[in-house]
Amino acid sequence: MKxxxxxxxNSPTVRICSPSYxxxxxxxxxxxxxxxxxxxxSSSRKGPMEAxxxxxxxxxxxxxxxxxxxxxxxxEHKKWNENSKDRKEAxxxxxxxxxAEFGRIYGTxxxxxxxxxxxxRTIKVSPIPQNIVACQKEVVSAHVNLVDLVDxxxxxxxxxxxxxxxxxxxxxxxxxKVFPMYKAKTQGLLxxxxxxxx
Length: 198
Description:
Layout: E1 3-5, E2 14-17, E3 24-27, H1 37-44, H2 48-53, H3 67-78, H4 85-106, H5 113-122, H6 132-141, H7 146-155, H8 165-175, E4 178-180, H9 181-184
Antiparallel strand pairs: 1-4, 2-3
Helix pairs in contact: 4-7, 5-6
């Protein structure tokens, strides 16, 4: 299986359900990027990642912590070993939630200039392009970890831009922040950030 380093809805209400599992997310909250931690918490509280972790009420989930760290903590809490069926099922569901969270934050409509511009701002493009084609060129040329793109909205920490694919690959594999490419390819903006890691 090929893996990739992991990737506004303008409508007032968004509904995202995992196709394979039981969690469902309904929100009327638009995510706004801010360095204020409290704003990060309030914008993410009703998101798909929180819906995923809400299935485990006995787990003390930290909404401001990196999502991959939280997933590993959940696995330790549940005492799931690496190859257990429960862990594999939870990971599949976690991946679905991660894609949905990316879409909630950055959008899924690849014809939306505002979505592209938000993505450009996050990956430190300056000046911000004023048309979609120019935005796409900037995004396609950027080497960023997609899990970190979601995390930066939760933690308030700026995204790290890698100088080349080799450095991104090294970081992604060492941190195990990889994502099945076949899932991410279905998402509008996300697919432009996919890089073949394995």
